[in-house]
Amino acid sequence: LAVGAVDDRFAALxxxxxLTLDGSFGDAGIRKIDxxxxxxxxxxxxxxxxxxxxxxxxxxxxxxxxxxxxTTFGNSGAVIDEWxxxxxxxxxxxxxxxxxxxxxxxxxxxxxxxxxxxLELQTNRDLEAPxxxxxxxxxxxxxxxxxxxxGEINHDYFGSARFSQDGSFExxxxxxxxxxxxxxxxLLLPDGKILL
Length: 196
Fold this sequence. Notes:
By secondary structure, the chain is mainly beta. Helix content is 0%, strand content 47%. It contains no helices and 17 strands. Strand 1 and strand 2 form a beta hairpin.
């Protein structure tokens, strides 16, 4: 599975093992959703029922395993999230709730939804660093319900912000200095440590 843009539109694609498009998915291997030019898909995650959640520019969409839009989710299969301007990562909690993490112009931001796409909470954090351009790039969900958002601040610092289960801010970590440090991905290690 891959996400991005086809014809400058929000899209998900599925490939066979030989990297040819899987014709059993969507329309000849592609599910394109026309939210308008320039609205691209940026991330995906599978839920326990093998449905595909795709996040991107102010949009969160759920597809069934064969690439059909799941109309039981949100409004006919999609949620418009104007709180998180760019959804860079999506996580699913043990209780099935969906956490969309990313940014607006200046903050780490998260939205949390019930499994059917109804909104539960929204929160944000402007990290304490000499900048106003924070990008939340990844989300890690702890067993106790805490939400850790990882990313970068003004393209100069690595940063993270931890929120409690109710969305209140707990703590933050900022590391680095001017010099172009950028975070684009993360990995949760078996011992619980996080590689950024």
